[in-house]
Structures are given as structure tokens and as C-alpha cells.
Amino acid sequence: MKIGIIGAGNIGGNLTRRLTSLGHDVSVANSRGPQTLTELAEETGATAVRVEDAARGAEIVVVTVPVKAVPNLPSGLLDGAAEGVAVVDTGNYYPKQRDGRIDAIEDEGLTESRWTERQIGHAVIKAFNGTFAQDLLDRARPEGSTDRMALPVAGDDQAAKRKVMALIGEMGFDTVDAGGLDDSWRQQPGTPVYGLRADSKGVTEALAAAAPERGPEFRG
Ligand SMILES: NC(=O)c1ccc[n+]([C@@H]2O[C@H](COP(=O)([O-])OP(=O)(O)OC[C@H]3O[C@@H](n4cnc5c(N)ncnc54)[C@H](OP(=O)(O)O)[C@@H]3O)[C@@H](O)[C@H]2O)c1
């Protein structure tokens, strides 16, 4: 599958590694330009591209940049993507440590991914946001393994969600449907499922145990 990855840091880099190892055709971009990604490209066989070109022909595009950088992404980010492209958002809002205060998230009560969706102008599927980057490489397991982890996946576009869940399954993880994007507060930072290494049952229980209030450490 042709996959575009926007952001080549902890998560974007390891998604590039894992997805190329499965034989996918990955294009990867960062903020500084493809000439700064030659090492990752050589290591993985991915194609380093400009952000503007990352989505070209892609069936899945992953946006994995700091939340504060989302408004800086170029308009037309998804131009040229395959019809029905599924856009994955891995983002987490860290107002104190990194992102600064985003009023629409805190005052309007938008989920973090709904805010991102509005910024980029395309529906998103929230996935990988609570997964440690290293786990993408170290904790992948064949289907049916007793220690296979499950990841929550939220989003409104059912076809896109199915596509992303299938890809995560192929990557070595079970998935739990965490509902629509307005339910995705259940997997944001500070919730029981965030960073949890558990199977589908554990993830389902953790999602159900979440409280909607944003804790003080996650307010700007
Ligand atoms: N680290 C984790 O384990 C983890 C786990 C789950 C979710 N997340 C979330 O996923 C997101 C990415 O996290 P990360 O740890 O991978 O971040 P990171 O290591 O800081 O990497 C961020 C990447 O985004 C790129 N970037 C920044 N602004 C950009 C722009 N305007 N256009 C294109 N690329 C841009 C950076 O490019 P340059 O290299 O050129 O600066 C860098 O490659 C965050 O929201 C984070 O909270 C992280």
C-alpha cells in the first residue's frame, strides 16, 4: 500500500521502519526537507519527500507532528491522495510542555483530534497516540499471541477506520474500536488507556473507565 507519513520523529520514524519492513511503499516528510531524511530513507527504503508531496497517491496518510505544528502544515496537504484516503492523527496536546494553550481545545471542549481535523480540513482517525514509539517495533506480535497488545482507534469515517485497523493488525497489534472522534477524549493524555500495554479486554475496560475532565497538568 502507498502510505504517506508527515513527521519523521519518534513515531513517524518508527512507523516508517515498521511499515517498510512489511513491504509498504512509504513516503516520509519532515519540516526541514527530504535532504535531512537520507539516513532514514537509506535505512528503510522509504522515499524522503517534501511535506507537499507526502500524500501523493497515498491510501493512508499519517500526520505525526507536534500539535502546535499542525497549523503550519501546508494547505492542500492531501491534494493528490488516493480517493477515500484515510488520514491518521497520532497527536497529543501538551499545553505546558510543548504546544502552548489552544483555546478551541480547552474552551470549546473539542477533542484534540477534532481540532486537528478542522485544521487540516479532512476527517481523521485517531490512532497510535497512546503507544510508545519504541513499542511499534518491539511489541509487534503475530495474531493470536497471548501477549499481543491492543490499540484504541477512534474516528467517524467507518471505511477509513476499518482500513487503519487492518493496517494496525498487520503491524502486529489488535485494535479496539473506541467510537467516533467526539469519543476520542477517552484515549487522550491522562486517561487510563494512555500508554497502557494491554490486550483488547484491558483496553476496552480502560476506555470505559475514562473521565471527561481534563486534568490540570493537561491545561494551558
Ligand atoms: N513519542 C512518542 O512515543 C509518541 C507516542 C504517541 C504519540 N505521540 C504524539 O505524536 C506526535 C509526534 O510525536 P513525536 O514524538 O514523533 O514527535 P517528534 O519526535 O518531536 O517529531 C516531530 C516530527 O514532526 C516534524 N514536523 C514538525 N513540524 C512540521 C511541519 N510543519 N511540517 C512537517 N513536519 C513537521 C518534525 O520535523 P523536523 O525533524 O524537521 O523538526 C519531526 O520530524 C505528537 O503529537 C506526540 O505527542 C508521540
Task: Give an account of the 3D structure.
This protein has 220 residues and is α/β, with parallel strands linked by helices. It has a single domain, classed as NAD(P)-binding Rossmann-like Domain (Rossmann fold, 3-Layer(aba) Sandwich), CATH 3.40.50. Helix content is 29%, strand content 15%. The chain has 8 helices and 8 strands. It has helices spanning 10-21, 38-44, 95-99, 103-106, 112-120, 135-138, 158-171, 200-208; strands at 2-6, 25-29, 47-48, 60-63, 86-89, 125-126, 150-155, 174-177. It has an 8-stranded mixed beta sheet, sandwiched between helices. Helix 1 (10-21) links the parallel strand 1 and strand 2. The longest helix is centred in the C-terminal third of the chain and has 14 residues, at 158-171. It is globular. The chain starts with a strand and ends in a 12-residue tail after the last helix. The site of NADP nicotinamide-adenine-dinucleotide phosphate has 27 residues, from helix 1. It comes from Streptomyces chartreusis.
Could you outline the blueprint of secondary structure elements for this entry?
Elements: E1 2-6, H1 10-21, E2 25-29, H2 38-44, E3 47-48, E4 60-63, E5 86-89, H3 95-99, H4 103-106, H5 112-120, E6 125-126, H6 135-138, E7 150-155, H7 158-171, E8 174-177, H8 200-208
Parallel strand pairs: 1-2, 1-4, 2-3, 4-5, 5-6, 7-8
Antiparallel strand pairs: 6-7
The structure holds NADP nicotinamide-adenine-dinucleotide phosphate.
Domain Pyrroline-5-carboxylate reductase catalytic N-terminal: 2-93
InterPro entries: NAD(P)-bd_dom_sf, P5C_Rdtase_cat_N, STEAP_metalloreductase
Keywords: Oxidoreductase
